[in-house]
Specification:
By secondary structure, the chain is mostly helical. It is built from 9 helices and 2 strands, in the order E-E-H-H-H-H-H-H-H-H-H. Helix 7 packs antiparallel against helix 8 and helix 7 packs across helix 9.
Length: about 180
């Protein structure tokens, strides 16, 4: 078909400009160089750059077929990162859904395969210990409330958060008693 610049899309019969496709691929690759992206996130970023829905769909499908775009792998990576920062699985699930458009099944599969509750609790307790050392002079009930609030903001239930705060405060007191008795 000599002389024909664009290919027809199946849905609407419009022509897609090959230069737009090349430009959209280049934009997508630039975005993917910095970090993995979800399909939803990449789709939105390409639309923000002014590419048509047809062009974006063509690029997304090609990237998925070539293995450059995979929501499950993105979600697993996200779970590992947030787990290491002490976030609870419920908050990670919410972020995957609301910020990255990951469907429930994919988010649940990623959390089930990658989330390590003990690791998250150890990290949140470590962070609580750092916060605790900066709260000298505060009342014990205020310290406990602030530490628990910190854990709740990371997605843990209030009961879990208060339990962790108590453990961290107890460990902190024991460590400092040992230092004072030396």
């Amino acid at each position: 078909m000599a002389g024909r610049r664009g290919s027809r899309t199946k849905k609407r019969g419009r022509r897609i400009d090959p230069d737009d496709i090349k430009s959209a691929f280049a934009a997508a690759y630039r975005l993917l160089i910095f970090r993995d992206r979800s399909e939803h996130e990449l789709r939105n970023r390409l639309r923000q750059k002014g590419y048509s829905d047809e062009t974006v769909q063509t690029v997304i499908e090609s990237l998925k077929n070539d293995g450059f775009l995979n929501d499950l792998e993105f979600a697993k990576s996200f779970v590992r990162t947030k787990n290491a920062r002490g976030l609870a699985p419920e908050l990670i699930f919410h972020k995957l859904r609301s910020q990255f458009g990951i469907d429930d099944e994919t988010a649940n599969r990623a959390i089930a395969s990658e989330y390590d509750r003990e690791r998250a609790i150890a990290e949140i307790k470590r962070l609580m210990g750092i916060k605790l050392s900066s709260m000298k002079g505060k009342r014990l009930d205020e310290i406990k409330r602030r530490l628990a609030s910190f854990a709740v903001r990371r997605g843990f239930s209030p009961s879990e958060a208060f339990e962790m705060a108590e453990q961290v405060m107890k460990n902190f007191e024991e460590e400092h008693e040992d230092e004072n008795n030396s």
